[in-house]
Amino acid sequence: WFRWVLKIDCKYYILAIQPNNYTWYDGRFHTDFRTHNKYSKRLYYAFYPLWWFAHQWDVLIANNFNPKWNLGFDSLTAYPDPDPETSTVDGFVSRHGVDEVFSTIRSGAGTTFDDSFANNANSARLLSSVTTDQFGRLSRSIYLFDTSSIGSATVISTAVLSLGGVAKVNSLGSPDLEVVSSSPASNTALVNADYGTLGGTSYGSVTYASFSITGYNDITLNASGITNINKTGISKFGAMLSWDFNNSFTGTWASSVSSYLAIVFADTAGTTQDPKLVVTYNQFFNVAFV
């Protein structure tokens, strides 16, 4: 029955099962390897109800009353560090003070940044210039999280990136917010050049209409976004307007006005609206038979 669950077609004694392989003995030792964690994933999906119960136990009971009872089916909530940063940073990066067509301002080098603001319209912003169909500022934001405590021997089931909104303006139109990867030069400080490090794969989005300016905007990460989580280090995300992501301005141009989505950064007092990454995962335990 257990071999049927794991879809292992082997008539010999199975000695051990690892996330991506199993070992059997027929007078000699043999190991069947797969290119991904096939067997741990099959265990997870086959026994999801048990995992769900264990996760609820860890989160609601063990973690709150006696951590020694924790079964290892946990979730992690991570925030960027406020200034001064010790392990993770957040903030905005911009190309500013120019007068350029959209494709040029999008692909140009960054000219300014800030990693100590509490919140700012430059989280994700496009500002027009006085020249018809040209722009003076494009801003993106970067969010880093220490997710090293998850550990490599885990399977992540869900991840939600929550960004607290404080304002939005659509004088040029109503773009969505896209979550992507980022790759700043440092984990604890931003520089102008980080403007060019945001990725081109969407990990999730929130529409302009749905973007809350009074609380969190919860964005459930897709499979690519989950893959971007570093289970033994720092996970690096970014956010940009959908015009920026698609390299296409589809709004209505007007002189010296903006469209933006303003997001709370970690330098806001407390953590009630700080950027937040919640990762739900389970520990993998080796299964051995003789």
The proportion of strand residues reads 35-45%
Q: From the alpha-carbon coordinates, what is the Rg to the nearest angstrom?
A: 23 Å
- Considering DSSP H and I runs of 4 or more, what fraction of the residues is helical? 10-25%
| Helix and strand composition category | alpha+beta
The largest sheet, given as strand count, sense and whether it forms a barrel, is:
13 strands, antiparallel
User: What's the SSE pattern?
Assistant: HEEEHHEEHEEEEEEEEHEHEEE
Average of pLDDT: 90
Number of helices: 6
Low-confidence stretches: 285-290
Count the beta strands.
Answer: 17
Which term fits the overall shape? elongated
Cα(first) to Cα(last) distance is: 16 Å
What does this molecule look like?
This protein has 290 residues and is of the alpha+beta class. Strand 2 and strand 3 (29-33) form a beta hairpin. It is built from 6 helices and 17 strands. Strands 4, 5, 6, 7, 8, 9, 10, 11, 12, 13, 14, 15 and 16 form a 13-stranded antiparallel β-sheet that branches. The chain has a 4-stranded antiparallel β-sheet with strand order 3-2-1-17, with helices on one face. It has helices at residues 2-6, 38-46, 48-65, 102-107, 223-227, 242-246; strands at 13-18, 21-25, 29-33, 75-78, 90-100, 112-114, 119-120, 125-128, 135-146, 154-170, 177-181, 204-206, 216-220, 234-241, 258-264, 276-283, 287-288. Mean pLDDT is 90; it is low at 285-290.
